[in-house]
Predict the structure.
Amino acid sequence: MTLVERFLKYVSFDTQSSEETGLTPSTPGQMVFARYLKAELESLGLEDISLDENAYLFATLPANTDKPLPTVGFIAHMDTSPDMSGKDVAPRIVENYDGSDIVLCAEEGIVLSPSGFPELLDHKGEDLIVTNGRTLLGADDKAGIAEIVSAIVYLQQHPEIKHGKIRIGFNPDEEIGEGAHKFDVEKFGCDWAYTMDGGEVGELEFENFNAASAKITIKGRNVHPGYAKNKMINSLRVANRLMSLLPDSETPEHTESYEGFFHLVGVSGDVEQTTVSYIIRDHDRSLFEGRKQRMERLVAFINAEYGEGVATLELRDQYYNMREKIEPVMHIIDIAFEAMKAAGVEPHVKAIRGGTDGAQLSFKGLPCPNIFAGGLNFHGRFEFVPIQSMEKAMNVIVKIIERVAAR
């Protein structure tokens, strides 16, 4: 099976995760996919294959040299985003892309166009895998899984490439921030690892947001509107007041690079009770803590204005910037940098404006920077992945393994 065939098979599995179930994996389709992958890894003759009840799948490619070498891991996630359906994905390949509009779904007038997605033009002449306009594609992160498995197959076919013990790990529920929570780092048994979960070719990331969630519950007092003066507390209006006190300029649509934000992700309620949900993000830890304190002050202000206990805040840290865990072992970044160069890829070190399983794993004792998998426009119908980008990612994995042995 080729890299492309492998990827097209993988995206046929519906593995959309869910924040609603409270289970691990959060949806049964992820376990179905995990069992398929387990059978594939068994057919390839890998060793120490394990699949636990939470859909964490580990396997080993044994060392083919007696030279003492570090054990390196490669990790990708099996779930796709809850933002859009991953069921009945029907990809097609646009060969030798010419830079024009790509009609994804003529019936619904859905078009992937360089006018809206100028990054398409960076891939003229390449072969693009696109959606049918009705689902996401699933390159995030099934491209990463396909690249890892294909790299392992390549190493098996080229025993002249000497390497140490290689571990691979596929986990559920990354898209809902739970991918690393039940990842058994000790069982995985690596000196360090890389997640293959980035986007454009050349991305190499060892910084990410510090992240928290904030849920504000506002309790109102519903009174007949004809007789409500000085009695009613309309929780919807209080919620609107609260939201208006956060700066418009510090939102995702107005920030970039290292700028943090408050992101309103949900509002639901009625006069009696309203819930407002935010996510809080910043690369700088002190600024991140300041944002959380600002949210606490805001809720206190609302209670001072409308009455104690009207607003309650649930604030929960989600993950932290992995940079502080990677800086003491920067040789693992140097190896990835050298591997990209050897694979003909120009490295682009950048900070992730988001999170990754690698951040949580780094804080669990497994340093784990992130490398590109090649896909673009994740989480929606306009997602695509150039075949050539997946091939480059696969080659980078092989080159990393070669560089580790060479060092």
